[in-house]
Design brief:
Elements lengths: L1 H32 L25 E5 L5 E3 L2 E3 L2 E3 L2 E5 L5 E8 L4 E9 L5 E5 L1 E2 L6 E6 L9 E11 L4 E3 L3 E5 L5 E7 L2 E5 L5 H12 L1 H8 L8 E5 L2 H5 L5 H5 L4 E4 L4 E5 L20 H23 L6 H10 L10 H4 L28 H17 L1 H12 L4 H9 L3 H11 L26
Parallel strand pairs: 15-16, 16-18
Antiparallel strand pairs: 1-14, 2-5, 3-4, 4-6, 5-6, 6-10, 7-8, 7-11, 9-10, 11-12, 11-13, 14-15, 17-18
Helix pairs in contact: 2-6, 6-7, 7-9, 9-10, 10-11
Length: 450
């Protein structure tokens, strides 16, 4: 009987332990899994690219010849305005000519240009004939203007008595008459390149379409215009329109202009060595790798255009990290370069102005602002979801500071989130602030002879 009671008691204990264990799994384990900082060095996956199956996009050949474009004549009040002729003389600007007949004496004719975001420039026209009816304006008389930019233009005419008129706005493309380019166009991108084969266009366009869904989710909408990407094959051609020539742009891979709504880049040279482990060895760098890498750069730069189009501003790590995270292959979002640091080489804080743009990861890959910014974006995505990214960006676009927008989107301050993110990376959660010694004035040298 006693043995039977003992057996019953033993089974009660086993069942109790089983129930308590089950409660632990149901109640405690989900709480642990919900804390991304307890991932023990594992990374949240970056967002997957949308599947893309585009039909072969036509590629046309453009440029390579001087072609003057004409625009309709019109009569506005006392001014009879002839056809306008516009001719690209890239890389030395564009020439616009017009004849204006009027019984009034004309004191001023100005060519006005308007870019996609409403900014613009102007060029004062000069009389070019004896009777004063022919006018000529040179647009871009200084270096720095890339080919294939698009803009609207119009003439502003003023008579000596104050009579004033503006012509109808017309559209112009600053083409390159010096060589033939490839052009690929979709609703998401107008792409120009030369020096590499036609297949690059398909790779770049598919990359832009692959990140379209993420862009629209994160920013709430697409761009209000079709962006332009211009790719030069080497430093020499990239430098031909820029001040300072090759020496002035040797360390620049390209630039993106919010005003022009375009990005201008150059292909990397195949066969270059890099200390960054994310890049293949020179002998392993293939044309396929170069095309994929360049497509990633294009999607990164297009994200900058999204940021500008949506009034997204903030510290450098937020802007560059966001552009990398939204790109087709966020190489700089991997954590190795952040985790592989010497014990006394802690990450700088994200707070305030954040890390310096000149600070680099220890493995020699990229500026730290890119890695830290991308990793932090991916942490927010993994811990809180895409809806939180969208809320964060929407609030910033409505003039919330980046920090305040984070509080509204996540319920935590940047300082709290940074602590969680550092734990997630396997680092000390407390930001290390290097001590500074009190400044001591050095001894002042005594002038000779005193």
């Amino acid at each position: 009987m006693l043995a039977k009671q003992f057996q019953t008691f033993k089974w009660h204990i086993i069942i109790s332990f089983f129930i308590w264990g089950l409660l632990f799994v149901v109640m405690i384990v989900p709480a642990v899994l919900a804390q991304p900082q307890l991932q023990n060095g594992a990374d949240f996956p970056t967002p997957t690219l949308s599947p893309v199956s585009l039909d072969m996009i036509p590629v046309e050949r453009v440029g390579g010849a001087v072609e003057s474009k004409t625009y309709p004549a019109e009569v506005i009040g006392p001014f009879e305005i002839s056809e306008t002729t516009a001719t690209s003389n890239y890389p030395h600007g564009a020439i616009f000519t017009v004849a204006i007949h009027s019984e009034l004496a004309i004191s001023n004719v100005t060519l006005f240009v308007r870019y996609p975001h409403g900014s613009g420039t102007r060029a004062i026209a000069e009389r070019v004939d004896a009777d004063g009816t022919q006018w000529r304006a040179l647009l871009y008389d200084t270096p720095g203007q890339p080919p294939w930019q698009e803009f609207d233009f119009y003439w502003s005419i003023t008579a000596t008595n104050g009579e004033f008129a503006e012509t109808t706005s017309q559209f112009f493309v600053y083409d390159d008459p010096t060589r033939v380019w490839f052009k690929s166009e979709t609703p998401l991108l107008r792409l120009y390149w030369f020096g590499y084969d036609e297949s690059f266009g398909q790779v770049a366009q598919e990359a832009v379409y692959a990140v379209r869904e993420r862009h629209e989710q994160g920013f709430g909408r697409g761009l209000t215009y079709t962006p332009i990407a211009v790719l030069f094959p080497d430093l020499t051609t990239f430098a031909e329109f820029q001040a300072g020539g090759e020496s002035g742009v040797r360390r620049r891979a390209g630039f993106t202009s919010n005003d022009l709504g375009m990005t201008v880049q150059r292909f990397l040279d195949l066969g270059n060595s890099s200390s960054c482990p994310l890049y293949p060895r020179p002998e392993e760098q293939t044309l396929e790798w170069l095309y994929d890498y360049t497509a990633t750069v294009i999607t990164h730069e297009i994200t900058h255009l999204y940021q500008y189009d949506n009034n997204i501003i903030g510290p450098t790590w937020f802007i560059e990290g966001g552009a990398t995270w939204f790109s087709s292959n966020p190489l700089r979002g991997r954590q190795e370069g952040l985790r592989d640091r010497a014990p006394d080489d802690d990450l700088p804080t994200l707070q305030g102005v954040g890390p310096s743009s000149s600070a680099f990861t220890p493995n020699g890959c990229n500026a730290l602002v890119y890695w830290m910014g991308t990793s932090f974006h991916n942490y927010i995505y993994g811990a809180y979801g895409m809806d939180t990214i969208a809320t964060w960006y929407d609030l910033v676009s409505r003039n919330f500071s980046m920090d305040d927008a984070l509080v509204e989107a996540t319920g935590k301050t940047l300082a709290e989130l940074e602590r969680d993110w550092r734990l997630y990376l396997g680092l000390n959660p407390e930001v290390f602030v290097r001590p500074t010694d009190p400044y001591q004035f050095p001894p002042t040298p005594t002038p000779f002879g005193s």
